[in-house]
Amino acid sequence: MLRGSSAFTAVVFDMDGLLLDSERPIRDAWLHAAGVLGVPLSESDYLSVVGLNHTDSYARLLALFGHDAILLDAARARADASLASGAPFEVKPGARRLLRTLREARIPCAVASSTHHAEVRRRLHLAGLLDHFSAICGGDEVRCGKPDPELYALALARLNAVAHTTLAFEDSGHGVQAALAAGLATVAVPDLKAPAPQWLARCHAVLPSLEAVCPHCPDWFGVNCAE
Fold first, then answer.
1. Residue 186 and residue 165: Cα distance in Å, rounded?
2. Same domain, yes or no: 73 and 151
3. Same domain? 142 vs 66
4. Considering the chain, what percentage of its residues have pLDDT values greater than 70?
5. Are 51 and 134 in a shared domain?
6. What CA–CA distance (Å, rounded) separates 7 from 75?
7. Among 87, 93, 111, 139, which is most exposed with the fewest C-beta within 10 angstroms?
8. Pair (73, 143) in one structural domain
9. In a 10 Å sphere around its CB, with 0-12 CB exposed, 13-18 middle and 19+ buried, how is residue 131 labelled?
């Protein structure tokens, strides 16, 4: 692996929809649970929740389901469906190779996810990715979730990194806004819900997948992509 000067010395990743293909099965489980309960939840309704922290997503889902008890029943059904599968979420294309590249280059990485800390660790562990990260930051550890920058500020503090030399990877509009507000250069890799054009225009790059990061590794990290 060739080494040279690098633009970034730390990296912060979102998790759901970026490292893990979790947004689709979770979406499908919510839509199925809503259908069983007779709640007219559309895919566009659900997408309005993507990228929000637990508190904000719960408030939005409550407005959609109309009653706390119905929402709780749907949440239990969604959780039961996820547990019944027994399988980890699929790792997104290019994620393993990029994380291996950063690890070999000794560039510290963190996860800043709106999902609860314990669940972030569980999902990453099941996917075999947990050991790549020096810090894990969950949405239950901050007062204000994405698009507020607090979660990214926490990740920077735990990495002992500074914003202007840290690169963020995000898939959703709320995540891109949070990373940019925290002062990080941000790469958007859109998944189910692409960021709005005004946020994409402010990104360091917009890529179709994490596989497309490989050609940028020499400029961004001072290394060639791992084999």
1. 11
2. no
3. no
4. 86
5. no
6. 43
7. 87
8. no
9. exposed
For residues 38 and 134, membership in a common domain is answered with no
**Hey, what amino acid is at 83?**
L
Please indicate, yes or no, whether residues 65 and 128 belong to a single structural domain of this protein.
no
Is residue 139's pLDDT more than 50?
Answer: yes
My answer on whether 134 and 195 are in the same domain is: yes
Structural domain contains residue 226: no
Q: How many helices (H) and strands (E) does the chain have?
A: 10, 6
User: Tell me: the pLDDT tens digits for 167-217?
Assistant: 999 999 999 999 999 999 999 999 987 889 999 999 999 999 999 999 999
Give per-residue pLDDT as tens, 141-175. 999 889 999 999 999 999 999 999 999 999 999 99
Q: For residue 80, name the pLDDT band (cuts at 50, 70, 90).
A: low
Tell me, what DSSP letter sits at residue 131? G
The CATH number of the domain where 151 resides is what? 3.40.50.1000
Q: Report DSSP state, residue 17.
A: T
- 207: Cβ contacts below 8 Å, ≥ 6 apart: 187, 188, 189, 213
Residues 96 and 206 in one domain: yes
Q: Residue 64: which domain range?
A: 23-85
Handedness of CA 100, 169, 145, 114 (dihedral sign): negative
